[in-house]
Amino acid sequence: xxxxxxxxxxKVEIIGxxxxxxxxxxxxxxxxxxxxxxxxxxFEVQEVRGHIxxxxxxxxxxxxxxxxxxxx
Amino acid sequence: xxxxxxxxxxKVEIIGxxxxxxxxxxxxxxxxxxxxxxxxxxFEVQEVRGHIxxxxxxxxxxxxxxxxxxxx
Amino acid sequence: xxxxxxxxxxKVEIIGxxxxxxxxxxxxxxxxxxxxxxxxxxFEVQEVRGHIxxxxxxxxxxxxxxxxxxxx
Amino acid sequence: xxxxxxxxxxKVEIIGxxxxxxxxxxxxxxxxxxxxxxxxxxFEVQEVRGHIxxxxxxxxxxxxxxxxxxxx
Amino acid sequence: xxxxxxxxxxKVEIIGxxxxxxxxxxxxxxxxxxxxxxxxxxFEVQEVRGHIxxxxxxxxxxxxxxxxxxxx
Amino acid sequence: xxxxxxxxxxKVEIIGxxxxxxxxxxxxxxxxxxxxxxxxxxFEVQEVRGHIxxxxxxxxxxxxxxxxxxxx
Amino acid sequence: xxxxxxxxxxKVEIIGxxxxxxxxxxxxxxxxxxxxxxxxxxFEVQEVRGHIxxxxxxxxxxxxxxxxxxxx
Amino acid sequence: xxxxxxxxxxKVEIIGxxxxxxxxxxxxxxxxxxxxxxxxxxFEVQEVRGHIxxxxxxxxxxxxxxxxxxxx
Amino acid sequence: xxxxxxxxxxKVEIIGxxxxxxxxxxxxxxxxxxxxxxxxxxFEVQEVRGHIxxxxxxxxxxxxxxxxxxxx
Amino acid sequence: xxxxxxxxxxKVEIIGxxxxxxxxxxxxxxxxxxxxxxxxxxFEVQEVRGHIxxxxxxxxxxxxxxxxxxxx
Amino acid sequence: xxxxxxxxxxKVEIIGxxxxxxxxxxxxxxxxxxxxxxxxxxFEVQEVRGHIxxxxxxxxxxxxxxxxxxxx
Amino acid sequence: xxxxxxxxxxKVEIIGxxxxxxxxxxxxxxxxxxxxxxxxxxFEVQEVRGHIxxxxxxxxxxxxxxxxxxxx
Lengths: 72, 72, 72, 72, 72, 72, 72, 72, 72, 72, 72, 72
Prior knowledge:
Dodecin subunit-like, alpha+beta, 21% helix, elongated, 3 strands, 72 residues, homododecamer
């Protein structure tokens, strides 16, 4: 967030899903939201979840983030 | 949520209002959001509130949900 | 919120930034969101933050609100 | 809540107990509080609990609500 | 909970899934846990979620409860 | 709170509504509760909400406080 | 809480202050509220605080509880 | 918790009930769970509640704890 | 979670400890619980903690998760 | 917060007390902490409380903030 | 907290450990912090935890408090 | 935390910033705090946030931790 006067931002809640890591799931959410919504400025992680495969291994990470962008 | 790789979902917050029951208020929110926004996959209840009429009876339920859909 | 049957509302999360006061930051968020999104009905404050200048004074208030409007 | 200037409301916390449903427990709380306290305007559900009978069935719902009324 | 001295209870977290209503999902959780675990005494609702079908209707309620039973 | 031994206080939850500012809404709640209930000692803000008029301006602040007084 | 049908309870928030222990502060709140308000059934601790004297010792415990009684 | 590599612990939620004090209720939960479940390593208090007798005195403390033990 | 009717799940709370990363600690918890308890379906991260060695480096991650499996 | 690599910040919790307004209490906390501790960068409001005088008017605002500064 | 104008307090988070009781652990934290930091005014309990010995008895209480003192 | 009698710990809140991963940001906070403050014993993650660059990629992770050390 740059500093100035009279600005407005919007927060949206996005879930990114990726197999490798929590960071990959965050990047998945950020990339998709940046291209389909708006240029995002920052994010906050809300929740980290995941799916477990039949082999007893984490098969994917599901990370819920709030991402923010300026309303111009 | 089906399981796979590299997917992204968006969560929106909706309030449904109905007179009959909490379930009717949830369905009201889901129906309206499905038709005007996107095909929704799942919901989570955030808050249950309501209005009380002059006769001391619950006159409507107001249920706040978060509903999620895939960003394709 | 007026009272009736079968209505639906959407909540959006907005951050208003202003130099004068918390109330000015709320109004900044409400004004911008009203003009670029929808006619808003009510708001709830989520978080009050701010930036501190080199002179040790609060240089701006950043107020996160949830604002709601009817989905018609 | 009607809109105007300089009004004051009081919130009280009430638990309604009923055998049929969550909605019946809310109505139980609202009816009793309306008759013994004040004309209530709205409620917010705080907690949903219940008792389980020897037959393994829910024997009653206990719903904690906050109910509000105007201080005139 | 009956009242006495020196008793101990255990809380377990169970998710019941049912198509009809929130109450049916609670009963599903309670019935299954009563038969496979222990005679339960009371429950507390933690979370209400659900799945939304392709037709934009709630297709099932998923209710997370904590259920308690005495350790004898 | 003065310090001593064996005292008891009661907390009540009040909503003050005012058009000018958050502080005015707090004072509205405190004044009304002081005159109709008891001499209050301190307050804690629970929630700040508000109504938005048709002109896209905050038309009133609704501030929920808990106020405490000694039970003598 | 005895179990039956169609009952209603009220929760009040009370702060007990005592010098000896947390339990003494809870009893202080319960005794005072029982005599001046109603026959109470159960309590839940909300917050434990205290004052520290000039000698660096805890000089009193302030315990906030919610206490419940049946509305008959 | 001793420190090492690749260990796993399980947390269980237990309610201890005792008449004397909060500490006695914690010990009640810990003793019972240690003998019927596993050797416990540490606990965290979740909630402190209690019952109030007809004489307006606390008749028992009910303390909810999470207790942890190593899965070997 | 597959979708159907009348299913029941149980959530257990597990702490995984690993030296390499948060993901390794999650996998540690999931692997151990899968082999000693049940085939798990999904997890939710509750808490991320860790130990710090004498050299001022993180020596292990301790991740608390809730893991769920179907009660059949 | 300026953006770069490998930076560290410390958060401290400060209570500012002022008679005029919530903003004055925040500024009181920020000014005192800036002069006696460090050059602060931003703050987050944690809690707003206050004292009520014998005349039933708010006599001071007590605002708890977390303030952050870079550890260089 | 005495009442006046333009005061500032700092809150610090301290963990006291003692074998006898929760109150002893609070006093341990308060005594140590008073002597090594500042003259403290009040405290708030954040968390109560403890260690369990091999004999299945609570071997120590660990109480996390926030303690406050005036910044003069 | 080693186990013994009558010990005291202090918790401080630190934000580590790093470009590579969440673990790198935690280590950044821990290293800096260890060298400039005290020998730390353990940490708890409070919040995970980050900045997003103009290319729509996460450009840094900002992790808020609480870190603890013994007051001797």
